[in-house]
TrEMBL record:
Localization per record: Cell membrane
Keyword set, alphabetical order: ATP-binding, Cell membrane, Glycoprotein, Leucine-rich repeat, Membrane, Nucleotide-binding, Receptor, Repeat, Signal, Transmembrane, Transmembrane helix
Signal peptide: 1-20
Superkingdom of source: Eukaryota
Keyword Transport: no
An example Gene Ontology molecular-function term: ATP binding
Classification of source organism: Eukaryota, Viridiplantae, Streptophyta, Embryophyta, Tracheophyta
Residue ranges constituting the Protein kinase domain according to the UniProt record: 684-956
Name the record gives this protein: Leucine-rich repeat receptor-like protein kinase PXC2
Cellular component per GO, a single term: plasma membrane
Binding site for ATP: 713
Length: 964
C-alpha cells in the first residue's frame, strides 16, 4: 500500500510521535500517508510535514476551529500525480474532498463515500480510469455532491447510484460511460443538477424524470440517447437549464414543457426532433436561450415567440422551417443572437426588422442631427451581435438604417434573394467582424464607406452583381483577413492600398472584369494563403518570390495578358533585350559570361532549342566516323569502358566539313568491338529523328552489329562547363541498371558536341500511346503496369540520388512488352549549375502542367518531391487519357483540378478514360486517382516518397488481376 518512500524509520517516528504527543491525531497520519503515495513535482505540499503536528496550518487543509480536526481538503490544480491512497480514510471529520484538476490515476476506491462525514467529492479533471465500482454509491452517508467529470471512467453507471438519497449534484460528464441510464436514477429526488454530458450513454431516457421537483439543471448532451424527450419533463418545475443536444432524440417537443415556469435555457440542437415549433413555446416566459438547430422541425415559427421578452439567443438554423419570420420577434428587445440560417424562410425580412425596430426606437432617431456620436438606441436590434439569415429564400433590400445595428459583430445574409445596392451606412457597423452578403442579387458599387467598418475581418461579397471599382478605402479595415469579391462585375484596377492589409490571408477576386496590372504592394502581404485573380483582364507581370511562386495556375488563369513563371508565359515586354549566343564559341569563359546574363523568364523553350541547333546549324546529318578504334585501349582497363578516339565530321549531305574535331567515345559495356570497324558510319539523319526535347534531339541509329540505339544530341551543350563534370555525371548514369529505366550505353564528348547513346526502346513514348493519332487504346491493366513501372523507375533513381527534374509523358518510353522505361533523367543536374533555376523551371522542364509549384525558384529547396509531383500528374494523365493542361475554346482546363473536383463531387469514375468504357476495376482506379492527386499536391511535404508510392501501388493492385 505504501510507497517505498516511506521508510521503516518513518513509521517508527510516527509510532513514537503518536505515543509521545497527545495532540497527534489520525489526521496527520492519514495526510502524511496520502502524501507519500503522490508525486508532487512542484513541492506544493512542502508544508505537509510530519514533524508539524498541527495539520490545520498545512496548505489545502481547513480545520474545524473548535475540534481542530481537518474538515476540508482542497487541492485543486496542485499538479499532483499518483493514486488517491487510503490514507484519507483516516480523516474521520472530512466533509469536503477536492482533488480536481490534477494528474491522478488509477481506479476509484469504493470506500470514500463511506466516510460518514463526507459531503463533497470532487475528483474531476484527472486521469482516473476503470468502472465506477458498485460499492462506490452503496453507502453514501451524507454525500451531497459528487463530481467525477473529465476522467477516463468506463462501463455502465452502477444501479447503486440511486441509493444516495441525499445527493444534490452529480457530475459524471466527459468520461466514457456506456450502457443505459438505470430507471432508478430518478429516485434521487433531491437532485439539483445532473450532468452526464459527453459520454457514450444510450437507449431511451427512462420515464420518471418528473419526480425531480428540485432539479435545476439537466445535461445529457453528446451521448447516444434515442427515443422521445421525456414527456413528464414539465413537472420538474424548478428546471432552469435543459441540454439534450447532440443525441438521437426524435418525436415532438412534449407539451408538458410549457409549464416550465423558470426555465431560461433549452438546448435540443443536433437531434432528429420533428413537428412544428409549438405555439406554447411563448409560455416559457423566462426563456433566454432557445437552440433547436439541426433538427427536422417544419412549418412556421409561431408568433408567440415574440412573447419571450428575455430571449437573448435563438437558433433555429438547419431545419425545414417555412413561411415568414414572425415580426413579433422585434418585441424581444434583449436579443443578442438570431440564427435562422439554412431553412426555407421567405419574405422581406429586413424591411420589417428595420422598420419595427425604428418605430420602437422612436426617440433615438435624432442620432444624425449633425453629431456623429452614437446615442444609445432602444430597440430590439440595439444589442444584437449576431444576425444570421443565410441560406433561405428571403428577398428585399438592405435598408439604409442598417446603422441601427450598433453592436453587430456578425452579419450573414448570404444565399438569399436580396437585391438593390449596398447602403453606405454599412460603414457604420464599427464592431462588425464578419459581413457576408454573398450569393444574392446585390448590384451597384461597393460603397467606399465600407472603410468605416474598421473591425472587419471577413468581407464576403462574392456571387452578386456588383459593378464599379474596388474602393481603395477598404484598406481602412486593417483587421481584414479574408476578402472575397469573386463572381461579380467589378472593373478597374486592384487598389494598391490592399497591400497595407497586413493580416490578409485570403483574397479572391476571380471572375470579374478587373484590369490593369497587379499593384507591387501586394508582394508585402506575407500571410497570404489564397490569392485568386483568375478570369479577369489583369495584365503585366505576376509578382515573384515567396507565396507567389506557389500559387496554382488555376488561380491566375483566364487573364490572357498576364505573364510570369506561374502562367508559363515570359514577360518579354519587361525584358526586351534579346540574348544572342555565339554558337561557335568554344571558349568556356564566354559561355560562362552568357549564362551569367541569363535572367529569369528571358529564354523561351524555343530559344533554347534554337541555341542548341545553332551550334550545329549545318547538321542535317551528323556522321559519326569512327577512327582509331584500337587507340588508348589502356584507358579502357582503367575505366572499365572502351575509350575510343573518333572524329566527327560535321557534314551536311555531301559536303564534308573541313575542321575535324577529335572527340572521346566511351561505351560502358566495354564492348569495344561493337565499333570495331574502321570507317564505320553511324548515320544520324532527319529521317531517323525520334523526337526533340528540352535537352536535345534524339535519333535512332544502328550500331555496327545492327543493334539499334537512340542517340541523343544535347542541344544545350554550350552550357556544359567542363568535360570532367560531364564525364563524371555520365559515369554515374551509366551505372544505372533497372528494368524501368532506360540504359545509358555510352557517350561521346567534344567541346562543342555531346552525344548520349541510349538503349533503343521500340514502343515509342507514353505520350504517343496516350495522345498519338495512331494510338491504340491502352487497357487498364497496361495503364496500371505503366504507372507502377514509372514509379519503380523513379524510386530506383531517387535511391541512387538522382532527381529526374523533367518527368513527362514524352520522357517515358514503352518497350515491346509494354514495360515503361523512364528516360532523359539526370541531365538537368548538368545544366543546373549553368542555368538559373528559374530558367530550368520554365524552360527545360518545359512541359506545362508537370512542373511542381516549388520549382519556380528561390525560396523553396528543390528535392525529389518535384518528380513526385510530375509523377502524380502523369498518373492522372494515364488514367484519364487527357493532357495535363488542355486548351478549350477560351478556357484552360487543368487536369489535376478537374479530377480533384470530380473526386470531391464523387464523380471519380467519370474521370477515367472514356475509351475504356467502364472496362476497369473501380477498386483500383479510385485509389490510383487519389494517389495521383496526393502526389500532385501543391505542398512538397504532402507528397509521398516514390518508394512509398511503389508500395501503395502494389497494395492497390487487385490480386485477381495480378494473375492475369
Ligand atoms: C501530468 O503528467 C504528465 C506526464 O506524466 C505531464 O506531462 C503533465 O504536465 C502533467 N499535468 C499536470 C497538470 O501536471
Ligand atoms: C461538470 O464538471 C465539468 C468539469 O469540471 C464542468 O465543466 C461542468 O460545468 C460541470 N457541470 C455542472 C452542471 O456543474
Ligand atoms: C455630440 O453629443 C455628445 C453627447 O451628447 C456631446 O457630448 C457632444 O458635445 C456633441 N458634439 C457636438 C459637436 O455637438
Ligand atoms: C439594381 O437592380 C435594380 C433591379 O433589381 C434596378 O432597378 C437598379 O437600377 C439596379 N441598379 C444598378 C446600379 O444597376
Amino acid at each position: 500500500m505504501f510507497k517505498d518512500a516511506i521508510s521503516l524509520s518513518f513509521f517508527l517516528f510516527l509510532a513514537v510521535s503518536v505515543t509521545a504527543d497527545p495532540t497527534f491525531n489520525d489526521d496527520v497520519l492519514g495526510l502524511i500517508v496520502f502524501k507519500a503515495g503522490l508525486d508532487d513535482p512542484f513541492s506544493k505540499l512542502a508544508s505537509w510535514n510530519a514533524e508539524d503536528t498541527d495539520p490545520c496550518n498545512w496548505v489545502g487543509c481547513i480545520c474545524d476551529p473548535v475540534t481542530n480536526r481537518v474538515t476540508e481538503l482542497r487541492l485543486d490544480a496542485f499538479s499532483l500525480s499518483g493514486h488517491i491512497g487510503r490514507g484519507l480514510l483516516r480523516l474521520q471529520f472530512l466533509h469536503t474532498l477536492i482533488l480536481s484538476n490534477n494528474n491522478l490515476t488509477g481506479t476509484l476506491n469504493p470506500e470514500f463515500p463511506h466516510l460518514a462525514s463526507l459531503q463533497v467529492i470532487d475528483f474531476s479533471g484527472n486521469h482516473l480510469s476503470g468502472r465506477i465500482p458498485d460499492g462506490f454509491f452503496e453507502q453514501c452517508g451524507s454525500l451531497r455532491s459528487v463530481s467525477l467529470a473529465n476522467n477516463k471512467l468506463t462501463g455502465a453507471l452502477p444501479v447503486s447510484v440511486s441509493y444516495c438519497s441525499t445527493l444534490n449534484h452529480l457530475n459524471l460528464s466527459s468520461n466514457q460511460l456506456s450502457g443505459r441510464l438505470p430507471r432508478d436514477i430518478w429516485f434521487l429526488i433531491t437532485l439539483k443538477s445532473l450532468d452526464f454530458s459527453d459520454n457514450l450513454l444510450q437507449g431511451q431516457i427512462p420515464d420518471g424524470l418528473g419526480a425531480l421537483y428540485d432539479l435545476h439543471l439537466i445535461n445529457l448532451s453528446s451521448n447516444w440517447f434515442s427515443g422521445d424527450v421525456p414527456s413528464d419533463i414539465g413537472r420538474c418545475s424548478s428546471l432552469k437549464s435543459i441540454d439534450f443536444s447532440d443525441n438521437y432524440l426524435s418525436g415532438n417537443l412534449p407539451e408538458s414543457m410549457k409549464t416550465l415556469g423558470s426555465c431560461s435555457s433549452i438546448r435540443l440542437q443536433g437531434n432528429s426532433l420533428t413537428g412544428e415549433i409549438p405555439d406554447w413555446i411563448g409560455d416559457i416566459a423566462t426563456l433566454e436561450t432557445l437552440d433547436l438547430s439541426a433538427n427536422n422541425f417544419s412549418g412556421n415559427v409561431p408568433f408567440s415567440l415574440g412573447n419571450l421578452e428575455f430571449l437573448k439567443q435563438v437558433n433555429l438554423s438547419t431545419n425545414m422551417l417555412t413561411g415568414e419570420l414572425p415580426h413579433t420577434i422585434s418585441n424581444c428587445s434583449n436579443l443578442i443572437s438570431i440564427d435562422v440560417s439554412k431553412n426555407s424562410f421567405t419574405g422581406d425580412v429586413l424591411k420589417w426588422i428595420f422598420s419595427e425596430s425604428s418605430s420602437l426606437s422612436r426617440f433615438t432617431l435624432h442620432k444624425r442631427s449633425g453629431n456623429d456620436t452614437i446615442l444609445p438606441i432602444v430597440g430590439f436590434l440595439q444589442g444584437l451581435r449576431v444576425l444570421d439569415l443565410s441560406s433561405n429564400a428571403f428577398s428585399g433590400e438592405l435598408p439604409s438604417n442598417i446603422w441601427i445595428l450598433t453592436s453587430l459583430v456578425q452579419l450573414n445574409l448570404s444565399t438569399n434573394s436580396l437585391f438593390g445596392s449596398i447602403p453606405t451606412a454599412i460603414g457604420e457597423l464599427k464592431l462588425a467582424e464578419i459581413l457576408d452578403l454573398s450569393s444574392n442579387l446585390f448590384n451597384g458599387t461597393i460603397p467606399s464607406a465600407i472603410g468605416g467598418a474598421v473591425s472587419l475581418k471577413e468581407l464576403n461579397l462574392q456571387r452578386n452583381r456588383l459593378s464599379g471599382q474596388i474602393p481603395a478605402h477598404v484598406s481602412n479595415c486593417s483587421a481584414l483577413n479574408t476578402i472575397d469579391l469573386s463572381e461579380n462585375e467589378l472593373s478597374g484596377g486592384i487598389p494598391g492600398s490592399i497591400g497595407s492589409l497586413s493580416n490578409l490571408e485570403y483574397i479572391d477576386l476571380s471572375r470579374n472584369n478587373l484590369s490593369g496590372s497587379l499593384p507591387k504592394e501586394i508582394e508585402k502581404l506575407s500571410h497570404l494563403t489564397t490569392f485568386n485573380i483568375s478570369h479577369n483582364k489583369i495584365t503585366g507581370e505576376l509578382p515573384a518570390g515567396g507565396f507567389f511562386n506557389t500559387i496554382p495556375l488555376s488561380a491566375v488563369t483566364g487573364n490572357p495578358s498576364l505573364c510570369g513563371s506561374v502562367v508559363n508565359r515570359s514577360c518579354l515586354s519587361v525584358h526586351p533585350k534579346p540574348i544572342v549566343l555565339n554558337p561557335n564559341s568554344s571558349n568556356p569563359t564566354n559561355d560562362h559570361a552568357f549564362s551569367g546574363q541569363i535572367r529569369k523568364n528571358v529564354l523561351s523553350i524555343s530559344a533554347l532549342i534554337a541555341i542548341g541547333a545553332a551550334a550545329f546549324i549545318a547538321i542535317g546529318v551528323v556522321v559519326v566516323t569512327l577512327l582509331n578504334v584500337h587507340a588508348k585501349s589502356t584507358v579502357a582497363r582503367h575505366d572499365t569502358a572502351a575509350t575510343l578516339a573518333l572524329s566527327i565530321g560535321e557534314t551536311f549531305s555531301c559536303s564534308p566539313s573541313k575542321d575535324q574535331e577529335f572527340g572521346k567515345l566511351v561505351m560502358f559495356s566495354g564492348e569495344a568491338d561493337v565499333f570495331d570497324t574502321t570507317g564505320a558510319d553511324a548515320l544520324l539523319n532527319k529521317d531517323c529523328e525520334l523526337g526533340r526535347g528540352g535537352f536535345g534531339v534524339v535519333y535512332k541509329t544502328n550500331l555496327q552489329d545492327g543493334r539499334p540505339v537512340a542517340v541523343k544530341k544535347l542541344t544545350v551543350s554550350g552550357l556544359i562547363k567542363s568535360q570532367e563534370e560531364f564525364e563524371r555525371e555520365m559515369r554515374k548514369l551509366g551505372k544505372l541498371r533497372h528494368m524501368n529505366v532506360v540504359e545509358l550505353k555510352g557517350y561521346y564528348w567534344t567541346q562543342s558536341l555531346q552525344l548520349l547513346i541510349n538503349d533503343f526502346v521500340s514502343g515509342g513514348s507514353l505520350y504517343r500511346h496516350l495522345h498519338g493519332d495512331e494510338s491504340v487504346c491502352l487497357t487498364w491493366r497496361q495503364r496500371f503496369s505503366i504507372i507502377i513501372g514509372i514509379a519503380r523507375g523513379l524510386a530506383y533513381l531517387h535511391g541512387n540520388n538522382i532527381t529526374h527534374y523533367n518527368l513527362k509523358a514524352t520522357n517515358v518510353l514503352i518497350n515491346a512488352t509494354g514495360e515503361a522505361k523512364v528516360s532523359d533523367f539526370g541531365l538537368a543536374r548538368l545544366l543546373a549549375s549553368a542555368l538559373d533555376r528559374c530558367v530550368l523551371s520554365g524552360k527545360v522542364q518545359s512541359a506545362l502542367g508537370y512542373t511542381a509549384p516549388e520549382f519556380a525558384c528561390r525560396t523553396v529547396k528543390i528535392t525529389d518531391k518535384c518528380d513526385v509531383y510530375g509523377f502524380g500528374i502523369l498518373v492522372l494523365e494515364v488514367v484519364t487519357g487527357k493532357r495535363p493542361v488542355e486548351y478549350a475554346e477560351d478556357d484552360v482546363v487543368v487536369l489535376c483540378e478537374t479530377v480533384r473536383e470530380g473526386l470531391e463531387e464523387g464523380r471519380v469514375e467519370e474521370c477515367v478514360d472514356g475509351r475504356l468504357r467502364g472496362n476497369f476495376p473501380t477498386e483500383e482506379a479510385i485509389p490510383v486517382i487519389k494517389l495521383g492527386l496526393v502526389c500532385g499536391s501543391q505542398v512538397p511535404s504532402n507528397r509521398p516518397e516514390m518508394e512509398e508510392v511503389v508500395k501503395i501501388l502494389e497494395l492497390i493492385q487487385c490480386p485477381s488481376h495480378d494473375l492475369e
